[in-house]
Amino acid sequence: MSAQVTVYGAEGCWKCTNTARALELAGIVHQVVDVDAAGLRDELRDRGIRELPYVVLNGGGSWTGLRLDKIVELRRVAV
C-alpha cells in the first residue's frame, strides 16, 4: 500500500523542496502544491498553519516543517 501525501509549499522554500525530495527518495506517492500559485496562503494562515511545508496525509494526519522522522515512519507503513 502506498501512502498518498500532499505537500503544500512555496517557491524558494528549502524545507519544502527537501521534504518533497525525501518523499521521492522514500518512494512515497505525493503531490506538491504551491500555496501562492493556488491562492492558499491566506486560507492556511487562517487555519493556524504558520510554517511550510504543510504535509497532509490522505488517510488523515498532518505536520508542518521538514520532518524526516515522519517520512521514515510513512515509509515503514507503506512497505
Textual characterization of the structure:
The structure is a single chain. The protein is of the alpha+beta class and 79 residues long. It has one domain: Glutaredoxin (3-Layer(aba) Sandwich), CATH 3.40.30. It is 37% helix and 24% strand. The chain contains three helices and four strands, in the order βαβαββα. It has helices at residues 14-25, 41-46, 68-78, and strands at 4-9, 29-34, 54-57, 62-64. The protein has a four-stranded mixed sheet, with helices on one face. The radius of gyration is 12 Å and the shape is globular.
SSE layout and pairing:
Layout: E1 4-9, H1 14-25, E2 29-34, H2 41-46, E3 54-57, E4 62-64, H3 68-78
Parallel strand pairs: 1-2
Antiparallel strand pairs: 1-3, 3-4
Key words describing this protein structure:
79 residues, 37% helix, four-stranded mixed sheet, Glutaredoxin, alpha+beta
Series of secondary-structure elements, N-terminal to C-terminal: EHEHEEH
Number of strands: 4
CATH classification, class level: Alpha Beta
Gap from first CA to last CA: 7 Å
| Percent range for β-strand residues | 15-25%
The parts where pLDDT drops under 50 for at least 5 residues are none
Strand numbers in spatial order across the main sheet: 2-1-3-4
Q: For the CA atoms, what is the radius of gyration?
A: 12 Å
CATH superfamily assignment? Glutaredoxin
Q: Within the CATH hierarchy, at the fold level, what is the topology? A: Glutaredoxin
